[in-house]
Amino acid sequence: MKIGLLFGSFNPVHIGHLIIANYMANHTELDKVWLVVSPQNPFKKLGDLINTYDRLEMARLATDNSENISVSDVELKMPQPSYTIDTLTLLKEKYPEHEFALIMGSDNLISLPKWKNYKLILRDYRVFVYPRPGYENADLANHPSVTITMTPLMELSATFIRKSIAAKKNVQYFVPDPVLKFIENKNLYR
Predict the structure, then answer these.
(1) What mean pLDDT comes out for the span 121-129?
(2) How far apart, in whole angstroms, are the C-alpha atoms of residue 31 and residue 4?
């Protein structure tokens, strides 16, 4: 089975993430997509990152009814910060029957040369790229391991959602209803 891995802090998971995952699972050669909840991105500061297990639960709530999108907590059991190459290696060992691929935005494709062992990633894994506004010209776009997709362009961000919640704005339809209920019940991002 071909499984695409969409890494993220999912702080919170939102419909943009789900649209990307759904597109990749249904409009590419990938069979399934796993949302890999990352405890901490090595390129980002912790800042207003909420509890990892709350982010994991929101991702699970968002994907509960999906046939081909699920959630992975693999990075929660790894040393921090976790690096993509290490996660890929672990998953390949744990699930040798699957073929794993990366899913990333065009912004990450541009910064990929800064990643740990990025040449190894490109040698051993396929990379499916979705467009991000303002990041159209990546040097690696023509690499044989890279597939640029026609995923619908999304300008929705978790930062926008967190700021909206803090400002007491309505975020209905930006996040799935069970996620919104979870955020409200736990009084997150206020």
Answers:
(1) 98
(2) 8
d(CA 103, CA 188): 28
C-beta of residue 38 within 8 angstroms of C-beta of residue 8: yes
Non-local (6+) Cβ contacts of 124 within 8 A are 88
For residue 185, the surrounding DSSP H or E stretch is helix 177-186
Place of tokens 């419909």: 15
- Kindly report, residue by residue over 143-188, the tens digit of the pLDDT: 999 999 999 988 899 999 999 999 999 999 999 999 999 999 999 9
Of 22, 13, 34, 45, residue with least CA distance to 87: 34
Query: What is the C-alpha separation between 65 and 153, in angstroms, rounded?
Result: 24
Q: Provide the pLDDT confidence category of residue 92 given band limits of 50, 70 and 90.
A: very high
Q: How confident is the model at residue 73, as a pLDDT?
A: 96
End-to-end CA distance of the chain: 41
Structure tokens at 186: 């736990």
The secondary element (H helix, E strand) that includes residue 179 is: helix 177-186
Helix (H) or strand (E) holding 37: strand 32-37
Tokens of 31: 């069979």
pTM here? Answer: 0.94
